[in-house]
Amino acid sequence: MSLSRRRLLGGLSAAGAAAVVGVPLLSGVRGASSTGELLPSRIALPRPFTLPFRVPPVLAPVRSDASGDHYRVTQRAALVEILPGVRTQIWGYEGLFPGPTIRSVRGRRTVVTHRNELPVPVVVHLHGGHTPAGQDGFPTDLLYPVGRPGEHAHMDGAMTHGSRDYVYPMTQPAATLWYHDHRMDFTGPAVWRGLAGFHLVSDPAEDALGLPSGDRDLPIMIADRSFDADGSLRYPSLDPTLTHTPGVHDPYGSGVLGDVILVNGVPWPVADVRAARHRLRLLNASNARRYRLTLDPPGALVQIGADGGLLESPIVHDAVEIAPAQRFDVVVDFGRYRPGDVVTLRNAYGDRTTTPVMRFRIGPAGPDTSRVPDRLAPSPAPAAPVTVTRDLRFRHGKVHGMPGWTINGQAFDPAVAAADPRLGDTEIWRLSSDFHHPIHLHLASFRVLSRGIGGPGAYDHGPKDTVDLRPAEQASILVRFTDHPGRYVFHCHNLEHEDMGMMGVVTVRP
Ligand SMILES: [Cu+2]
Question: Per CATH, is 386-508 categorized as 2.60.40.10?
Answer without folding.
Answer: no
